[in-house]
Write a structure and sequence with these properties.
Blueprint (H helix, E strand, L loop, with lengths): L5 H10 L7 H8 L4 H20 L4 H25 L7 H9 L2 H17 L1 H19 L6 E5 L5 H9 L4 E6 L2 H14 L5 E5 L7 H4 L2
Parallel strand pairs: 1-2, 2-3
Helix pairs in contact: 1-3, 3-9, 4-6, 6-7, 7-8
Amino acid sequence: MAELAPKFERLLEELLPRMGMGRNALQAYLDTRDETFWLRAEDAISRYELLIARHEQSSTDLIDGYLEVCDDMMKEQIKFARTGKYSAATSSDVTGEVYHSEEKMQAYMYGVAVSQFLWPQHYHLYDFFFRVLEGLKQQGKAPQRYLEVGPGHGLFLTSAMAIIPTAQFSAVDISPISIGLSTELVALTRPEINCNFVVKDVGDMPSAEADF
């Protein structure tokens, strides 16, 4: 599918040799993907290339972030299997270490963005998101207001902007780093769209405020 997704293919060419035991499983999964998958992946990587270029980074930073997410996930699974507990018991346990850490949060956001296409369950969610929004639009029921809680890497938010550009957009996230990345991604890829970004725990917002 190199002709459909040359940028995504280049990312895979750099990533796959670093995958170790998971390489064959990932390749087998990719071999089953349809044209829509490759076009979406190319669009997403094209958006993120603009962001990493702004930060004077490269695709290696996306890959490093993805591998860090995979490594952390595996460590937590092993820890839970052995102890019945994860490292963090509450959201406050990770607020300082992750949500407010620029280095950790940026790597995590890069990694999760890549995982949207490399983890089957993540891509299923992304595909469901597209089908619902596009279905509503085709039925003439496209939402006029769109609130995203936890925009994270910004792919869902900027994708929604492409599908329903006339909606009024808002986004709230507990992490200022996440909001910063999402804001940058919108400015770089959907500059014609206005979005109200709020740094806050949505659970602490009164209902009237949450209505934006």
